[in-house]
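Throughout our pipeline, every protein is held as a single compact record rather than as scattered files. The record that follows is passed on verbatim for readers who wish to inspect the format:
___
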Amino acid sequence: MSADYVDFVLDALADWHRVTSRRMFGGYGLYRGALMFALIVDDTLYFKADDSTRGDFEQAGCGPFVYHARGKPVALSYWQVPADVFEDADYLGQWAQKAYQVAVRAQALKPGSKARKTARLKQVDPQDG
């Protein structure tokens, strides 16, 4: 794992938003605020994806991050970012924004998450009526 590659990615994303990195699982998680929206493993950038964005990655010929546990492949919801995305800072920012939105949606769906509780309270708050 190259710290130079992590620095390169952080610099490339700087025009989009302030992004921080944390070492994890032999790689790095990339965060906007408290939400992890990207993963770097073996000098490869992966963005968080879901049903709304997975097709973009598939169309670009990219696949998910896969690791092996107990001899079986496990695919995560992080997909390799196409190389041509790095050619334009605005384009990279668009992909990063989509990944961030996926992370926001995923957080809202987690049981006990503050976003989920807030949404639930807003649904029943008579003052919002």
